[in-house]
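Supplementary Methods, section 5.1.

A reviewer requested that the exact input to the structure prediction be made available. We therefore reproduce it here, unchanged from the version used in the analyses.
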Amino acid sequence: MVRLSLSAVLATSSFLSQIILAHPGHNVEEEIAEREAFFANSPRDLSHCTEILKKRGTEDKNRERIARAIAKARDDLGITKRRALKARATSPLSISHHSGLDVTPTTTGVEDIIFSNASCVLSTEGEVGPFWVSGEYIRTDLRETQPGIPIVIDGQFLDTTTCKPVTNLYWDVWNCNSTGVYGGVSASAQNGNAGDTSNINKTFLRGLQPTDSEGVAQFTTIFPGHYSGRTTHIHVVAHEGGSVLANGTYTGGKITHIGQLFFDQSLITQVYKTSPYTQSTTTLTTNAQDRVVATEIAAGSDPFFNYVLLGDTVSDGIFAWVTMGINQGASYTASAAAKLTSGGGVPVSGGGGGGPGKV
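The structure derived from this sequence is encoded token-by-token as follows.
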């Protein structure tokens, strides 16, 4: 993988902010300025937590947890074959986040992979994008009938101030399908077939999960496709202090984190050689070309999932994990493009978009 210097990343960010972007209606210069102002006054990483987490035994617990989670994901997907060890390859764009480790709950050395980027688990606040839907269902399996390579994503949230796990946080995630379309929002030239009026009522590849006593939540989704102007990514919003309604949806509270998570370019290349991803005719934007990746790396973040292939080929499935540091004292605004109601999806006038704005 090509190594990029910080100056190259900044140059890329500057260039991309001047071109027409896939998310319409955004003032990218204002968003970048907002993020830079936030970064200047915020803890950027969890490096100060490393020794504290070791003393608390958090590393040992996480090693065992990840091993069990990988084994369970393989069982759930009916996969018996396992890959041999492949060492993890120091800019986030040049690092390989791939582990080929044959993991069991008694495997030794897995902490070298899980914690080798302990100083790079960062709390970058980014834009929510134009396709966030509020009021989605609390559930673990987001796939519904969407075709694509299954991926289990595991996220742990830690407070950057106390270095403690953030419990009972609701992790809100969404991603596009294998051909780059988001469900739950009005179809448009930027999101599939503009004539598909039913898309507003679809809930695929969206959902929330509460974090447990270790600050962890998991989802099963499909590896995202891509659309014009953006690299492959998954959106993240962290909610706290809200309520769970009788119909299994979430409402209220405050937002303590907004971000996007990414995948190694080498993994994207492997996935997009398989069906149904080969059906896409959209030109691929790489990580090195993506404006959001450039901005987050320039701020000192490593916003990429670590991952392991669950079988002998990428088509068998992927397990991916990440640690996210958040400031629980923060509160951000996010503008929903639509809201899920008992009668289906309802567009929000003027909604969609928004970055890390303080409330």
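Confidence is low (pLDDT under 50) at residues 1-28, 84-90, 103-123, 354-359. These observations are discussed further in the main text.
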